[in-house]
Amino acid sequence: MIKFNNLLTIESLSNEEIMYLIKKALNFKLNNEIPKLKRETFIANIFFENSTRTHKSFEIAQKMLGFNSINLEVSRSSIQKGETLYDTVLSLDCLNVEAFIIRHPEKEYYNKILNSKNLRTKLINAGDGVGEHPTQSLLDLMTIYENFKTFKDIKVAICGDLKHSRVAHSNMKILKRLGAKIYFSGPLIWYEDYYKDYGEYKKIDDLINEVDVMMLLRVQNERHIEKFDKSDNYLIKYGLNNTRYKKLKKNSIIMHPCPVNRNVEIESCLIESSKSKLLAQMKNGLYMRIAILYELFKERF
Question: How confident is the model at residue 223 (pLDDT cuts 50, 70, 90)?
């Protein structure tokens, strides 16, 4: 059993709390018995960056649990008149919104909200710049556990745009803490020295036949400031093509947070292959977010 008001980083959860959420989400998925709120409760989804999977899985999870969802359209809100995120949250808090799901391009955007003397709202970080993405990390952990029933000594390769991926930043920290062995791969221009604290860098051809989880990352062209030669054949040099796929171990799985750049990080024909868990990740995202929202307002069910 866990009790929390905010979910901002994956590290804020203990290993026991993570396993509790994974088992709770798996139970909702297997039995499809979703509880209903007994009291009207408003939740606001505020996304400053485009999103399909995270935004819509939160919205559907809210509707399945009986929440009233407020989807703030940033492009048509007072934010376009210069209103700050803090003032937007303050305003909606006055209108009885009791929890916020926020994605924002600024890393740790949530600090001012948490330090407010007037706000008592609950907050879930749906992605902060190049910071973290704790709910994606939890659904990734759920997918790995669903397949291997443990994290201990599972070999995970995190491959691609490491520097700009909040998924990588969340997952490298928590997977090591849970006992997995981490490898990194991809262009060295996106590799930071401090990643050595979590795992070892290898070229993809040097690790393809030994990993249990091949976790590919989207090339985030929208975040690139440093020079990167887009004419490089990324798939051949760093991605998962069909030749490399055949070298994976029998029980290995492929993961990707999506959206996918087809034929860049992964050859298009492999997206729905037998080892691919991309669709399972999306489904698990719904049930993990149901579990998180349920625990956030547990006393009202």
Answer: low
- Based on the fold, state whether residues 41 and 116 are members of the same structural domain: yes
**Same-domain check for residues 140 and 208:** yes
To the nearest whole number, what is the mean pLDDT of the chain? 93
Cβ atoms of 162 and 191 closer than 8 Å: yes
220 is in an annotated binding site: no
Residue 74 has pLDDT above 90, yes or no: no
Residue 169 lies in a domain: yes
Name the residue range of residue 185's domain: 136-276
pLDDT in tens, 233-273: 899 999 999 999 999 999 999 999 999 999 999 999 999 99
Is 133 within any annotated ligand binding site?
A: yes
Q: Is 218 annotated as a binding residue?
A: yes
Q: Is 259 annotated as a binding residue?
A: yes
- 262 assigned to a ligand binding site: no
Domain count for the chain, please give it. 2
* CB-count exposure of residue 295 (10 Å: 0-12, 13-18, 19+): middle
Q: Which parts of the chain are beta strand (E)?
A: 6-7, 42-47, 68-72, 97-104, 122-128, 155-159, 181-185, 199-201, 213-216, 253-255
* Residue 53, marked binder: yes
d(CA 138, CA 7): 11
Binding site annotation covers 103?
yes
215 and 256 fall within a common domain:
yes
Longest C-alpha distance within the chain, in Å?
Answer: 57
Q: What is the pLDDT of residues 174-210, one digit of tens each?
A: 999 999 999 999 999 899 999 999 999 999 999 999 9
Q: Where are the alpha helices (DSSP H) in 66-149?
A: 85-94, 111-114, 134-148
User: Which DSSP letter does residue 72 get?
Assistant: E
What is the residue whose two structure tokens read 């803490």? 177
Q: What is the mean pLDDT of residues 64-92?
A: 92
